[in-house]
Design a protein that fits this description.
Blueprint: H1 16-19, E1 21-22, E2 28-30, H2 31-35, H3 37-41, E3 46-51, E4 57-64, H4 78-95, E5 99-105, E6 112-117, H5 131-134, H6 137-140, H7 150-159, E7 168-172, E8 174-177, E9 180-183, E10 193-197, H8 198-203, H9 207-217, H10 219-228, E11 246-247, H11 257-260, E12 267-268, H12 271-282, E13 286-288, E14 301-303, H13 307-323, E15 337-346, E16 352-365, E17 372-379, H14 387-390, H15 392-401
Helix pairs in contact: 4-15, 7-9, 7-10
Length: 402
Amino acid sequence: VVAEYKRVYPKGALAPQLLGFVGTDNKGLAGIEYQYEDVLSGTPGTMEVVSDLSGNRLATVSVEEAVPGESITLTIDEDIQFETEKILTGVVEEFEAKRACAVVLEPATGEILAMANTPVFDANDFSSVEEPDRRNMVVNDQYEPGSTFKMVVTAAALEEGLVTPETTFTLGRDIQVYDRVVHESHAESVPETRELTVIQILAQSSNVGAVQLGLEVGKTRLVEMIRRFGFTEKLGIDFPGEADGQMLAAEKWSGTTIANVPIGQGIVASPLQLLAAYAAVANDGQLVQPHLVRDLNRPWKRQVVSPLVAAELRDMLTVTVEDGTGKQAQVRGYEVAGKTGTAQKVKEGGGYAEDRYVASFVGMVPADAPRLVILVMVDEPANQHLGAYVAAPAFAKIADFS
């Protein structure tokens, strides 16, 4: 009888895409197991043995003791992780979605309390799961953010002093920029002309208003704000395979790019990058590097917008939940600030699919002094595609429990 070592995951189907797994040699192959292989594995020992011809040990000449690996402590809260996975699984079943992800983060520390993906599977039986289902879409995948990105162009306009939250614009049902015409998402229900404040543009998720703000800000200042929020770089989270954002280089922008980017088209980002941008708003304008392991990390920090602008954005995003598109994200006993997103997916060969969407909601709670920032993203829901109805209620359930 020969003893062998085997990696066992006592919680089974809890956070499998996050934890990852090891191979037959007990070396990490994915997830945290791979990221921290050097810390966890230690150094094997060695010994020289003198034997006779029959294999009997006569003497041990030298021994080098093994050095055990170190333990690491995740920032993950087990209860919040479990509940988040349960809620996500219900959303995917209800809306017949392809998959979904959610993250719960403390904006002041950058600690991630939950990072959930569907489908959930038993980490002890990872070999029976297809590779796409093992992916951590929060960190490894990219999407066009859609309307959740309107916060960024609003932040740029406020930071540059071009507008205040009460600045009013006269807007039509559409806006033309060179040969590109951008329509409101439900143009038939919108008056031919209307007066909207910057608060209302964000709360009602006006496409025309967001493009107007983009024209006010201009390419140079908008690109700079996008970079400051971290959309064009890796955030350096302690997880393998992090995707960096992608945006057309500033010198390659056409005249109509300024009509795409403010409404979250023509730019791709990971769910983690979108979460981090809202976390900066929650944390008085300071972005703290997200991370998954305590003690081994010294997260960097940087100021993205001023504390005043961050406070104005929180107030505006609170109106979005109270009176705008995010009403389904309300949590009893708390003020919530956040934004819905509904993004059409890009087709192969260019253009947008008419029947494939990514529905999302990202928000913070309590709105006046946020303790948590939570993102929910649902990929290709079938029987309803609006973030307001698919993702926002899931946010509310996760926030209420957390």
